[in-house]
Amino acid sequence: MAKARKVPAIVDRASTFCPGCGHGVVIRLIGECLEELGQDQNVIFGIGVGCSSLLGGVLETDRLHCAHGRASAVCTGMKRVSPHNMVISYQGDGDAYSIGLSETTNAAYRNENFTVIAVNNTNFGMTGGQMSSTTMPGQKTTTSQNGRDCSVTGAPIKFPELVASQFDVAYVARGAVDTPANVNKLKGYIKNALEAQLKGEGYSFVEVISPCPTNWGMTPLQAMDRLKDEIIPYYPLGELKTREGK
Questions:
Q1: CA distances (Å), 225 to each of 28, 147, 211, 230, 232, in order?
Q2: Cβ contacts of residue 121 below 8 Å, gap of 6+?
Q3: How far apart are CA 169 and CA 107, in angstroms?
Q4: Tens digits of per-residue pLDDT, 179-219?
Q5: How far apart are CA 100 and CA 105, in angstroms?
Q6: How many Å apart are CA 26 and CA 5, to the nearest integer?
Q7: HEC states along the chain?
Q8: Any idea what the Cα angle at residue 185 is, between residues 184 and 187, rounded to 5°?
Q9: Which end of the chain has less Cβ packing within 10 Å, N or C?
Q10: Confidence (pTM)
């Protein structure tokens, strides 16, 4: 009989995310990676405002809820003051790219030695489903009720591509939670990002493409289909930057 998979020790309660949300999967993977690296008791999270804020309701770990968009600035301070700790910024696309684009970009520009996990569900999930920097062309939100018009707002931002192409950082990847195979690949990306920080290589960034059935007005299964058919083709998955010799 197969042995039951052990839940990471720091995952001490069930999540309260909406049905079909990907945040719970991402947080579980982070917990597994931290435990496997022996860092689960040596980590501090800087948590963005939004659905990402609910990480504190799942993991029993040191954390600080940051002002909206400022998690990368806070994590910079954490890591510089306490360089022996693993520091992770956990944010959504609205927090990291819309409200906090300057802080997120400048941390990458300086090659700060911490890890950012940004969950991209193409809207401001917790505050009512407003348009974010990653909202898809034509996507209807509470602030783009006729669909996003890119001739007015600009096109959806591809932040990992920006970081990988313009800055001397350690590691950049994009994963998704739509299939078991992609979840397994995502775990590898998260672990690689954390290992880059452990080795002192600098800034590491993983974007996660995730569904938001509640604000998309879809069932969980419909949201997963949209992820596969529309979102992932625009935001291709894989490693965008690695250190030579990894």
A1: 22, 19, 9, 8, 10
A2: 21, 22, 51, 92, 93, 210, 211, 212, 215
A3: 10
A4: 999 999 999 999 999 999 999 999 999 999 999 999 999 99
A5: 8
A6: 17
A7: CCCCCCCCCCECCCCCCCCCCCHHHHHHHHHHHHHHCCCCCCEEEEECCCHHHHHHHCECCEEEECCCCCHHHHHHHHHHHCCCCEEEEEEEHHHHHHHCHHHHHHHHHCCCCCEEEEEECCCECCCCCECCCCCCCCCCECCECCCCCHHHHCCCCCHHHHHHHHCCCCEEEEEECCCHHHHHHHHHHHHHHHHHHHCCCCCEEEEEECCCHHHHCCCHHHHHHHHHHHHHHHCCCEEEECCCCC
A8: 65
A9: N
A10: 0.94
CB distance 202 to 195 below 8 Å? no
Give the CA distances from residue 131 to residues 74, 135, 193, 197, 220, in Å, rounded to whole numbers and listed in that order: 25, 6, 28, 32, 20
Amino acid making up residue 163:
V
pLDDT in tens, 75-133: 999 999 999 999 999 999 999 999 999 999 999 999 999 999 999 999 998 888 899 99
